[in-house]
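Weekly puzzle thread! Below is a chain. First person to post its structure in token form gets bragging rights.
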Amino acid sequence: MKIDLVHPVDAEMSWLPNGEDLDELPVRLVRQAGKSLTGRASFALYRRYFEIIRADTPELRDLVYRLRFQVYAHERGFENPEDFPEEREQDEYDGRSLHILLRHRRSGIMLGTARIVLPNQDDLASSFPVQAASGHPLLHDADVSAHAVEFSRLAISGERLKRCHIGSGENGGKISHLLAKQLFPFLSVGLIAGVIELASENGYPILLAVMEPFLIRSLRKIGIEFPFMDAPVEYHGLRVPCALLSLHEACVAMKRKDRAAWEIVTNKGRTQELALIAQTKSERARQAVARAFRLAKRPAPIVLGMPGAQPKTRRPPRQVDPIVRRIV
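Winning reply:
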């Protein structure tokens, strides 16, 4: 059930000064709010107190749907609570999706979740939500779709995060509002790590997504660059259709950018090896990755919104290019 993304922490922190206690890190993080996402102390904090598990039982999947309802219907106001009388947020893609949960180690509180949507081999043109957001040939190519999954439904509960405890002794206590805000990018990266491992382990070398700009920027800071990004669309705010065209190459680039982040996200290279196996498992898989890189260079019609988006928030075409430039 548990994804072994990390090894025991304390034995691997040789970079900490002698006598340094990881329980001191929350105080230091608050004082250093706004500094680089890639600080090793911040990643150590994530590894110490949080873990990723697979939601591979009916009971855990029920927790996923309840958590999504809390985040989307109550905390962020994306959905109308009355539309979900059973207080579980689900859609038509959940039946062929694999889910993960982010858990606070000490308390067992489930505070985050994400999923990968598997391709519909009987109808590859309608496999993923991103296909409704963009008309780009890359996202509608059958050979690419057959070897891709879509990362979606990332949700982190700020209310549950505040109930978690970090540290011990005089430094221990519930997470403050400032520290919760500081931790959000690291928790998102942790869920991305789980998603990348889950996709690679199941033999899919390509990862599609419709992502918020802040998450794209956070991932870029640790070396995860998106070779493909289409024009932004409006769906509960600005979202960008994008793709990691080779999970293996993304891991290699991350190692060059930030070794500490690479160790966390790839479990010291294990995920990178799985991604390489997924990409080279067959000639069709290799060709699908190569084809994805070729198709990513083609222009595509601009789509201004996803189904269900509010018409008043759509942006005219002349505003799309500046948005893209601000993101990248």
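Puzzle host: Confirmed. Bonus trivia for everyone else. The chain has one domain: 10-327.
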